[in-house]
Amino acid sequence: MSTMIQPTKNRFSVYILRKAVPRHLQGILNKREIKFTLDTKDVREAIERALAKIIQIDMMLRLAEKQLEAEESLTDADIEMIAGVWASRTMQNDERIRARYLVEDVLGGKTGMFHSPENDIIHDWLEDRERKPGYKSETWRAERDESICKLMTIELDEALEPYEMVSRSDHNLWQIAGFCPGPPFGI
User: Fold this and answer.
1) What's the confidence (pLDDT) of residue 2?
2) At what angle do helices 138-151 and 153-160 cross, to 10 degrees?
3) Are 42 and 9 in contact (CB under 8 A)?
4) Which of the 8 DSSP states describes residue 21?
5) Which band of pLDDT confidence, cut at 50, 70 and 90, is reported for residue 174?
6) Residues 90-93: contacts with CB within 8 Å, 24+ apart?
7) Mapping DSSP to helix (H, G, I), strand (E, B) and coil, where does residue 48 land?
């Protein structure tokens, strides 16, 4: 048999309600307990007001549970689809990619397309990170990661832009109609 949350007095003799947040929901709610004041010093009035606050606390916990379930429900297939959409969208912008990451330069008397200096820096830092992850100090690694983020500001902003996902059924209809040549983005 469970017991209902009972109003208790705080140090000012005002009644309050407190309920501990389950451990698995503390990260979502950013709290260890939920506390509401009942704004009264009268016990009868506190009991009358408590029911509405208890319902409010239960709703907060239910919403946090739903949010946790939604966060955990992202599957590998969903991740593949999202990555495929991003890749196909990015590849459609070939000219922008060439302008951003390649520069025309002369090397050994021949003109050609080479990685931009910023791209070389990012590449070297990421390679260094893979080869010797614990080699440098923590502050050096933090500075390197911050520098990479600064160099990739445009890419990070683009990655955060909202993008409408195409459902599999819509993609299949488009494929039947001849608008899409291959399978849907990584599926």
Assistant:
1) 52
2) 70
3) no
4) P
5) low
6) none
7) helix
